[in-house]
Amino acid sequence: MSESIFESFEAYLKEADYPKGKKKIMQSAVDLISTKSYNGTSTLQIAKHAGLSQATLFKYFKTKEDLLTAILHPVVPGLFGRFFEELLALNTTEEKVHYLVHNRMAYLKKNRALMKIILQEIFSNKKLRKEQLYIWNTLHDKLLVLHKELVADPRVNPEITIPQMVRICVGPLLAYFAQLYIVGDKGDIREEDLDLLEKQILGGLWK
Is 0.85 surpassed by the pTM of this model? Predict the structure, then answer.
């Protein structure tokens, strides 16, 4: 399962060879943690939301942290796998940025519950530090290749580091995502906004 590529958490659960009860608990955890926060959600609430007992939850997961780990570790590599392959197959920086903006905003919209957890919990909760490291380590090798290709473009600032590249390319997308789905939850992605995001990213990359 961990080597498969999935476009959404729901697609992953559908294909996963897990008991139905375990799937219900994992989906309930995503639903509740994305709306009530990690600290604001108890294992009892997750079990009740899934229509199961807390004893059943503990049968599959010893702690709430184990439950979150079980959600993230198999899913993150698969969700990003195809994206990087297709991104790196493109030739120009403009093509890469266009694909980045359109593909990842569609992805963020489809997986907004899971992304809320990643943005609101994993990168702000010190107890989940190992999850931060897991996501970074999963993506690091792919980011190295992308960085090498970008700085090979003579128009791109050759002094941009990998962390700077990530901030330039991902920062505007996450800010737009937060505006649509964290501050509010009914926003529509507009083409003119995506065009502006492309210009912002390219402006940050150029010398």
Answer: no
